[in-house]
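In response to a reviewer's request, we include the raw inputs and outputs for one of the modeled complexes. The two entities were modeled together in a single run.
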Amino acid sequence: MDFLVSQLLNSLVFGMLLFMMSAGLSLIFGLMNVVNLAHGSFFMIGSFTAFTLAKWSGNFWIALAAGWVPAAAAAVLMERIFIRPLYSRSHLDQVLLTFGFIFVFGDICKYLWGPDIRNIPPPEALEGAIIVAGAVLPKYRLFLVAFGVAVAVLLWLFLERSRIGAMVRAGVDDAATAAGIGINVPFLFGCIFALGAALAAVGGIVAGPVLGTYLGMDIEILIPAFIVTVVGGMGSLKGALVAGLLVGAIDTFGKAYFPDYALFLIYLLMVVVLLKRPQGLFGVVKG
Amino acid sequence: MNMKTSGRIPGFLALCVLLVLAPLGGDYLLGIVSEILIFAIFAMSLNLIVGYTGLLSFGHAAFFGVATYVVIGLGVHLGISGWLGAIAGVLASTALAAFIGMFCIRVKGIPFLMLTMAFSQLLFATALKWRSVTGGTDGLIGFMPPDFFGWNMGSDAIARYIVIVIGFLSVLIFLWYLVRSPLGSIFIGIRDNEQRMRAIGYPVQRFKLIAFTIAGCLAGIGGSLYALFNSYVSSDILHWHLSGDAMIMVILGGSGTVFGPAFGAALFLLLKNFISSYNEYWAFWVGVIFIFCVMFLREGVWGLVMKHFGRLFSNKDNSQSRNRSHSESKRQSHSHSHSHSESEKRVVAGAATGEQL
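The model returned the following structure tokens for the whole complex.
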């Protein structure tokens, strides 16, 4: 029982991290038709930045509040300077472009922070654990789940209630018509790209105390985040949340109960969903 | 017929001369050249689907890696000769490509990319976990390379090299003929305008599967040669990184020509070897060059070379050398005695949809 409860918490933690990664990935795809292969890099940049900020200030909350800024700035530059000139070309060219950035961002992080594994210390208030039904539940992990829920709610409010959110939804449904009725679609692209990067970076920051901060974490999170995006449906926030929790649970419980087959399970899930429902569980079919 | 036919024979002879001269440079150079040739096969095979059929695959390492595993695995576990192993390896990757292809070609664009990646990661996971057979990350050691006309390929670098050169030239010539054959022009047609091909009445799905299977088979040849060359395999060979490397080679060299990716493989491996010897940030520079190629040099370094090289030979029509695929589809339609305007339209349609990879 206690094992089950603590695994459940772990699966929620991983699910929330995947959600933060794939919400951005999914919105960017829904709006721009670009799969940002460098999305994991923002996760890593956020984590490393937060590590440095936490070391300087000694305060986790400062690192969380400001650590996403460099990643978002990098995303804005990347979108403006590199992706924008390619809008008139095939989407696949844009995907290739983001692939090149994996190497560039990876080596920039290597240059700035070196190859050591770093650890962001969790805030003092969240050290220790509480015990529920015999299971030891670290406070920080509980916070992380609550944080993920808060991010999901804020993001939902932003998309459903704000004016920009309405524009984004219009753009996801039909970018050409949205542009036709006077929505500044290129501006929207920039906003969503930066927002997605900021979300990924925040994910990387809060993941720091749990997963550590190291080179290569970009690819490690990217592939499951892809799977979440594909399973949930490109362009769907609900899909990112549901599939994030699903993949988080399958991966965590798979590793706990069938360690030899855990890796297969999530890939198989992706293959089955892609073949049975190419648009994903909650994706919209584009005309 | 035009500058490319006249430039191809001297180009091929120049390549042969270079390949013959390589053994004079010593064993170290020979090792690098051998590796370049193997990855050139791999990159050229990927380009058949990426550059000629217009399908972006991020899982091509699956076919390369499976062939390597079959050769080494049969040799280590069952003591089967590397030659038989190589045949089995190529057959295995061909069959695998046909099987995976059946699923992948049902979708296109980004889902295709994802699905190819998912399948190759499934194989990677298998290699990682099925340790009794694959050795996992430690890999399989103890493979005995076979003899080549009395020379042992394990001890004699030149014997290895000769086998690899034969493999490379065969694949190169095969692809040269393939892309100029009616089948090749169907692939190019699918890339340029799939809908039109469907409307004309081609069973597009079947031809996509054929392209995917041929590409898998050729990657298997590369993988088998790699097994004979390296005598070792670990799960790294199936990793996503290798599929990504092949994609970089294709883009660096240029996806519009058969030889471009081979040139890209040389460029990539030389960059990797030379930059990494005095700068640990070689991946950064590879990334920068890759981004530059995607943005400003979509025809690749080789495409650029051919553009200027081509001008020297052809004074008739410079616009022909402007776009390789342009003149290619043109030549195709000549040989099929279509009208001139038809081929022009096809190319314009391809350019307008932006699908001219």
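As requested, we also summarize the result in words. Confidence is low (pLDDT under 50) at residues 315-357 of chain B. The interface with chain A takes residues 56, 103, 106-107, 109-111, 113-115, 117-119, 121-122, 125-126, 128-129, 240, 244, 247, 251, 280-281, 283-284, 286-288, 290-291, 294-295, 298, 353-357 of chain B (CB under 8 Å).
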